[in-house]
């Protein structure tokens, strides 16, 4: 099992290095990216390299999240949360319940390289929120990007690059084929 995980991570790193991507676009600025690999939470994802991150774990419930903050604007954040997959519906609704005054402007199903996701865009009085919810066999993953409304469009390309870099790290996991 350990050897399989090491092999998977090695392939992931080699694949990331061979793509030639040097960074993510923000407006006209190219940012350097890093790859956050989190075997405990079951995912790997690219992130802006100069953004500080905070990793919060709840080992009792086998859940956690990683939060990145733009060093130039603390109101711009990017979060990936991981939790054991529950059969209960409404996980996205519970996430938006934690955003007082949230108004949805778009809700859709999307196909990502990591698998099918529920995608939701909306706003509160102080921020625009872009959320994705994905499921694997054993976990659910909530990805949440937020920024002040006047800066949101500048980050759309970066958000796409980041969300498309998501890899689910589970033995025998393969995203469902999309047609």
How would you portray this structure in words?
Strands 4-5-6-10-9-8-7 form a 7-stranded antiparallel sheet, with helices on both faces. Strands 1-2-3-11 form a 4-stranded antiparallel sheet. Mean pLDDT is 82; it is low at 1-22. The protein is an alpha+beta fold and 179 residues long. The chain has one domain: Mog1/PsbP, alpha/beta/alpha sandwich (Protein Transport Mog1p, Chain A, 3-Layer(aba) Sandwich). It is 21% helix and 47% strand. The longest helix is centred in the N-terminal third of the chain and has 17 residues, at 2-18.
Task: Output the keywords.
single chain; 21% helix; Protein Transport Mog1p, Chain A; four-stranded antiparallel β-sheet; alpha+beta; globular; 11 strands; seven-stranded antiparallel β-sheet
Put the structure in a nutshell.
The protein is α+β, with helices and mostly antiparallel strands and 179 residues long. It has four helices and eleven strands; from the N terminus they run H-E-E-E-E-E-E-H-E-E-E-E-H-H-E. The protein has a seven-stranded antiparallel sheet with strand order 4-5-6-10-9-8-7, sandwiched between helices. Strands 1-2-3-11 form a four-stranded antiparallel sheet.
Topology summary:
Elements (H helix, E strand, L loop, with lengths): L1 H17 L4 E4 L2 E10 L4 E6 L4 E6 L4 E8 L2 E12 L6 H7 L5 E10 L2 E9 L4 E8 L3 E9 L1 H4 L3 H9 L2 E2 L11
Antiparallel strand pairs: 1-2, 2-3, 3-11, 4-5, 5-6, 6-10, 7-8, 8-9, 9-10
* CATH evolutionary superfamily: Mog1/PsbP, alpha/beta/alpha sandwich
* Helical segment count: 4
Provide the structure class.
alpha+beta
What's the N-to-C terminus distance?
32 Å
- Strand tally is 11
How large is the radius of gyration?
16 Å
- Which CATH architecture is right? 3-Layer(aba) Sandwich
SSE pattern, N- to C-terminal:
HEEEEEEHEEEEHHE
Strand content is: over 45%
Shape: globular
Uncertain residue ranges: 1-22
